[in-house]
Amino acid sequence: MLASHADRERAVDVLRAGFAEGRLDKDEFDRRVGRVHAARTVGELALVVADLPQGPVPHPGPVAAVPQVFLATPRPAQNGRAVGSAVCGLLCLLTAGLTGIPAVVLGHTARAEIRRTGEDGDGLALTGLVLGWLSVGGWALFWLLLIAVDVLA
Asked: Phi-psi region for residue 97, left (φ > 0), alpha (ψ -120 to 50) or beta?
């Protein structure tokens, strides 16, 4: 690949850092800068800086540790089945209860996974369970009333 001006500038920056750290003397630095400007490909640039670190070497010194109190605590991942349960539970209203059973099944499996893995999403699973069971119970009551009316009539 042909070298761009930006590639050449990065290579010169690596050479400058090497010179500033005492890895190159002035003559070596000048020769290498000349080779960088004469290079046509990225591979040629890589050869010029191959024996140098690609950036300033960190200086050893005292490292200030951040107390645990100030570090952000990572949030646990959201359980996918809990999200699915809540979505199916909400869709019960639009699908006339068709997604009630999947909401119940997903809700129970999600709550078991959440207890086992410590993931987030228990409220979503519970929402899906409640809406799913209301839907299933509503349909069961509807069919029982329909059968009772048919038997009594």
From this structure: left
